[in-house]
Specification:
With about 260 residues, the chain is α+β, with helices and mostly antiparallel strands. It has one domain: Jelly Rolls, CATH 2.60.120.620. The protein has 6 helices and 15 strands. A 7-stranded antiparallel β-sheet has the order 1-11-7-14-5-3-2. Bound molecules: fe (ii) ion (FE2). Fe (ii) ion (FE2) binds next to loops. Belongs to the iron/ascorbate-dependent oxidoreductase family.
């Protein structure tokens, strides 16, 4: 892992040392203040390109194309909202997904399963433990976004999302987010409507560099990836960890996300 991750800058392998603790504390502080942290240069120079080269043949020929119209909740309706409420405005998402079972032995999977990373992430999130998923498809995914494609506005299902940007596009494909647009007690539907109409001055854009690890708290922070432009595909690995071991998706979830059950 020494040649893949910059463990000099980010000492994940020295758990319990003062420099490890300092990094955890910085990440925790960033999560509390901004709802995210970024480890730029997490991959050593040249590794993102190598990881992309491993995935590209699968991405080009066997990725699952997901194209759908949806609202920000990914739900057909919200009981307390009339169907024409502007918070339910439909947006389009188009992406290509490569599943973990299609990239055995890859750099991406080696990073996903690297135990010091799993323990470090648990520490930053204030969890006693995290576990890799057992689901052969869902554990780690690589998402591809080509010219004209975007991941549109949504809230996440999980409390934290961990991603690793492998390749940035020439233009567009930026991460845009609106921190704490809602809370567990206040659904703020009018604020949601304002964001969807492009009238929320607090929406921010983050332009990430390839090789950056990002941990993001996306349950109440609306976010999207803007439309990609240019020839180069945006490629990002999405890592799923859970507090309990052995987590699997249901067959319905696998078909819904990946178009196949196994
Ligand atoms: Fe998300």
């Amino acid at each position: 892992m020494e040649e893949i991750l910059d463990l000099d800058r980010y000492p994940l392998n020295r758990e319990g040392s003062s420099e490890w603790q300092r990094l955890v504390d910085e990440c925790k502080a960033a999560l509390a203040a901004n709802g995210m942290f970024n480890l730029e240069g997490f991959l050593r120079p040249g590794i993102a390109e190598k990881a992309v080269a491993e995935i590209r043949p699968v991405m080009d020929t066997r990725s699952h194309v997901h194209k759908r119209m949806h609202n920000i909740y990914f739900k057909p309706s919200i009981p307390e909202l009339s169907p024409d409420h502007p918070a339910l405005r439909k947006v389009e998402t188009v992406s290509h997904t490569v599943c973990a079972d299609q990239i055995p032995g890859s750099i991406v999977l080696a990073i996903y399963e690297y135990e010091p990373l799993v323990r470090f992430l648990a520490a930053t999130m204030g969890k006693p433990q995290l576990h890799v998923m057992q689901d052969p498809l869902a554990r780690a995914n690589v998402m591809g976004y080509r010219a004209g494609e975007a991941l549109n506005w949504h809230f996440d299902r999980s409390e934290f999302t961990t991603t690793l940007l492998l390749q940035a596009p020439e233009r567009g494909g930026d991460f845009e987010y609106r921190t704490d647009l809602r809370s567990d007690d206040d659904r703020n539907y009018d604020g949601v409507a304002r964001l969807l109409e492009g009238r929320d001055p607090e929406a921010k854009i983050l332009r990430m560099k390839a090789g950056t690890l990002n941990v993001f708290r996306g349950k109440n922070t609306a976010h999207r990836v803007t439309t990609v432009e240019g020839e180069r595909e945006r490629m990002i690995a999405v890592f799923s960890y859970y507090e309990r071991p052995g987590v699997m998706f249901s067959e319905e979830e696998r078909i819904g996300f990946y178009g196949r059950a196994a």
